[in-house]
Amino acid sequence: MSGTFLNLRAAPAGRIDMTGVLPEALAGRGAGEIEKMALRVDGVPVALGDIFAVTAGEGDTLTIRPGDARLDGLGRDMRAGTLRVEGAAGHYLAQGMRGGELIVDGDAGDCAANGMRGGMLRIGGDAGDWLGAALIGDRAGMGGGVVAVAGNVGDRLGDRMRRGLVLVRGRAGAACGARMRAGTLVVAGGCGALAGFGLRRGSLILGRAPDAMPAGHGDAGVVTLAWLGLLRRHAEAILPGALPETPRMHRYMGDLAFGGKGEILVPACA
User: Fold this and answer.
1) CA atoms within 13 A on the CB side of 220
2) Tens digit of pLDDT for each residue in 77-95?
3) Could you give phi then psi for residue 84, rounded to 5 degrees?
């Protein structure tokens, strides 16, 4: 058996802050040392061993089996290794992530990948609001890395995003790509109202037209974009079915009300 495993003993009543429980932090440590690490349950310090049974192993892979516990801050500031969550994740997943790979088999809460700068985040279910957005108090959102979501995403996807790639096979909520500065958002199932509101640069690629095209985006007609073929080959290796198959897109430039030079792309047949 490779890597370290944390198996839930019994879920406490409150939310568990998992900050600091990272593959690079646990690598090389024995079970006894890991069990003494401090977690916080609704702000109250609790020993990790009181909540999880620890099986220590070699390598920089960490597997967490959360059961029905509400685990927040998973992968926060992660820089290396592999973290797998065999279940659902709470809020603030992969905040400030810099490297490595974080895999969540189930759903994720709000504010995932806030301030992310590198690495790979895979979410097998749905994700909440503010995915890839700015950390509270920051002026810029996600600045690098790749996020792949197999399900749906809530409101404000990519708010203030300035670099990186987000792939969503499902649908996004309102204000998708709002205030984006750069980067690429791909949403196969389309999105709600206010798509690209305040968009300055970057590409919002939708598999179907949004509920309403924002007034600040000008119709730039139908274009054939060869680079979409390259992006699709890259995306298929990460999350198959996320990117439209056709390179022939209807392009909308904006947000012109903010002097923006970004684009919303929708398949010409949609």
Assistant:
1) 19
2) 999 999 999 999 999 999 9
3) -115, 130
CA distance 115 to 146: 12
What residue type is assigned to position 36 of the chain? K
Would you kindly state where each structural domain of the chain is located, as residue ranges? 63-267
Alpha-carbon Rg for the chain, nearest whole angstrom, is 19
Q: Token pair of 28, please?
A: 């090389």
What band does 138 get if pLDDT is binned at 50, 70 and 90?
A: confident
Residues pairing with 160 in the sheet:
none
Question: What does pTM read for this prediction?
Answer: 0.96
Model pLDDT for residues 54-67, shown as the tens digit of each residue:
999 999 999 999 99
Q: How many whole angstroms separate alpha carbon 180 and alpha carbon 207?
A: 19
Planar angle of CA 85, 145, 112, nearest 5 degrees = 50
Contacts of residues 77-84 at CB distance under 8 Å and 24 or more positions apart, as own/partner, are 77/19, 77/22, 78/22, 78/23, 78/24, 78/102, 78/119, 79/22, 79/24, 79/119, 80/23, 80/24, 81/22, 81/23, 81/24, 81/27, 82/3, 82/23, 83/22, 83/23
Residue 255: is the preceding peptide bond cis (ω within 30°)?
Answer: yes
Q: Which tokens hold the place of 190?
A: 């389309």
Task: For tokens 């974080």, name the residue.
Answer: 102
End-to-end Cα, the chain, rounded Å: 49
pLDDT at 270 over 70: no
pLDDT tens, position by position, 183-242: 999 999 999 999 999 999 999 999 998 877 888 899 999 999 999 999 999 999 999 999
Reply yes or no on whether the pLDDT at 23 is more than 80. yes
State how far the alpha carbon of 102 is from the alpha carbons of 30, 43, 152, 160, 260, in Å. 22, 25, 18, 22, 33
